Queue: 2 jobs
Job 1
Amino acid sequence: MPNSTNRSSVIKQAASTLHDGNRALLRGRETISKRHFDFESTIIKDDF
C-alpha cells in the first residue's frame, strides 16, 4: 500500500513540474515575440 501511494505522489510531482515548465516556456515565448515586434517596429521607423 505505501508503495502505490508513493508512486502516486511522484506522478503528481512530475505533473506539476511539467506544468511549471510549460508555463515558463509560454512566458518565454511571449517575451521573445514581444521583442521581435519591438525590433520590427524599430526597423520600420528607421525606414521613414
Job 2
Amino acid sequence: MSDIEHQQPPRQHKRVGRACDSCKRKKIRCNGKQPCFRCIQDHITCEYRTPYARGKRRASVRQNSTVRTEPAVPIYSPISQTSYSTVPSQPRESAWQGSTSPRNIQPANPHPEAKGRSLRASPEPGERDRQGHFVGASSGLTFLLRLQRRLRRDPDTAPKTSVFTLGDAVLPTFDETSFTIPPRQEAESILKTYFELASPTYRYLHRPTVAGWMRELYVDGNIAGGNFYSKYAVVLTMLAQGISYVGSNPNGPDAETGVRCFLAAQQAISRETGPASLSTVQALLGACFCLLTRSRLAHCWSLFGTTARLILALGLHRRKKKPEGGLYPPTGFIELECGKRTFWAAYTLDRYLSAILGRPCAFHDDDIDQEPPAIVEDQNLNSDSIIADDKRNMNTMLAPFSHRMLSLILGETLRRLYGVKSLDKATQYSTMSELGTKVDAWKRDLPAFLNADKVDSKLLVPLFQRQSNILGLASAHVRILIYRPCLFNDYDKSLGTLSQATEDNVAKCVNAAMDIVTVVDRMIESAQFYAASWFSHYQAFCAVVVLYTYTTRCKLDRTIWGKYYHAAERCQGCVATVANVDSLAQRLWVIMEEFRLEVLSQLQYEPPNSHDIATQLSNDVQESQLPLIQEPSNPEHVGPSSNAGFLDLPSWELLDSLALDLGIGLPDEPVVYSNASLGL
C-alpha cells in the first residue's frame, strides 16, 4: 500500500459561529466557548456583549474552568511590543512594598497568530468623514477615527451618562446602610500615608486637627464643634485619597474601600445644613482630588465649579484684615492659615484643570488679594500662636509655597499665550521669552532640597522626594506650554529673522520634555509613579507627544533621532505599567501608541518583531538596559524628506479631546490641518 493511501484525510476546519468580544477586537481565532481558551490564557474576562448580526444567533458554550479570569486591560509595551496584563482592581504598590516598573513585569508569550504583527500591520479600508467623503489611510482624519474607535470600545463606559460626568466610568451602587469606615488602626496608617504621599504640595488640611476629628469619630461617634457632616466628609475624602497610595497590601484596604469612602463622603456633604464653612470647602476640594485619582475629570470639573463659587462666597480669595488690638484673629490662627492654604490649593488645581481641559479659569487674578500661607509646620501652628521654625530650609510648606508661585506663572501663560486674542509672531516670541525667564528665576529661587539639579531626590525622605519630583514635573510642563507652539513654526518661511529664535525655543521645549522623562525614570526607580498620580501621567503624555513630534519634524542625524525617540518610548512604557481599566493613563497610552505608530509610518520604518524583542526581556533588567527598538533600516528617510507626510497629523487639541473624552466631535473637514494649535 502506498504512502498516499496511509495518509489520513485532511481534518475539516471547525467553524465557530461567534467569537468573544476580545478575540473579535483582535481579529484572532476563537473557539466560541465562554471563557474561550485565549481569554483564559490572557487572564481577562471573556464576554459576548457585542451585538450579533451574522445570521441566526448561536448559543455560546459555557465551560467550567478553574482558571480565574479577572478584568484587565491589555497593555502592549512600546518597548517590547509584548502584551502585559494589568489588573485594574489593584492600585500601584507603595514605596515600601515594591515597584511595579517595566523591569518587574513578566512579559506574556505573544500569540502565534500575532507574531511579527504590529497593532496596525494589516491595512485598513478607507474611512469616510461626516459628509461621506472617502479619506485614505495616510490622512490625519483616519488616524483620529481609528483612535476614536479604540478609545470608545470599552463596554464598561456607559454610552448614556449624566451631562456632568460625560466620559467617566460609572460609579458602583452605594448602599449607605452597609458602609463602615476602616478600623481605627488602619485609618491612622492611611492618614499618615495621605500626608506623606497623597498630598505633597496640596497641604490644605491641618494634620493635628484632622487627626483630632478622626479620634473623636472613633471614640465618641461624633465630632464636636458643629458642621459634623462636613468634618466627617473631610475625614472620608482623606481616607479615600490615602487608600489610593497604600498599595495592594493583603491585610490593608482595597480600592473598593476607597470608592465607598468617597461615596459616603458625597452623602455626608449633601446632608450638611446651615451656613457653609471652611470644612465644607475642604470636603468639596477633597472630593475633587478623589475624583481625579479615579480619572473622573468631567465629574471633577463639575464639582470644582461648585467648590470655587463657595470659596468666593466665603471670601477666601480676599485678604483678612489684621485684628485691632488683638494678638491673634478671632477665628484663630489655624482657621486663618487653613483658609489661605485651601484657597491656594484650589487656585493651583484651577490652573491645571484649565490647562488640561482648555477651558477658562474659575478664579481671576484681578479679584484676588489673598496672602500666601505662612511657612510653618502643622505641629507649630496652634489656634493662639504660630511658633517660628528654626529649620525653615527643610519645611514641608515650602513645596506648596513654590507650587503656588509656579501656578501663577502657569495662569499667566494660559492667559497670554492661549487666550482668545491671537498674537503676531514677534509679540508671541517676546511673551515666550518673558515667561521663560520667570520660570528660570523661579527655579533659581527654589530651595536646594526641592531642586533635583542640586540635591538628588533619592537621598531625601519620601515626602520631600515626592515634593521634589512633583515640582520638577510641574516646572517642565510649564516650559512645554510656553515653547510648544514653536515646534511647527520652524517650517514657516514667513518668520524670516525669527528662525534662530524658533530654533532656540524648540530646543527649550524638547529639553523640558526630556526633563519630564528623567523625573519619571526617577519616580519609577523609587516606586513613586503611582496609578493615582493622575497629573504625572498627563505630564508624561505631553512630553512623549513632544518628543515623537520632534523626532519627525527636525533635521537630525540618526544618533540624535534615536535618543529622543527612545526616551519617549521608555516614558510611554512607564505609563503603561499604571494603566488600569477606565483610567486616564490607559486612554493616554492608547493615544501615545497610535501616535507612535503613525510617526513610524511617516518615517517609513517598520517596528521590530514582537516575538524577537520579547525574548530579550528579563525580570531584573535594569532600566538602562531596556530593549530599544531597532534603528531605521533606511536612515535616509529621517530628515527633510520625512516632513511632508507629517503635516496631516492632528493637533494637540484634538488629541486631548480624545484622551480626556471631552465630548468634542471630530472635524467636519475631510482632513486635519491644524499644525500650530494652541489647544490644551
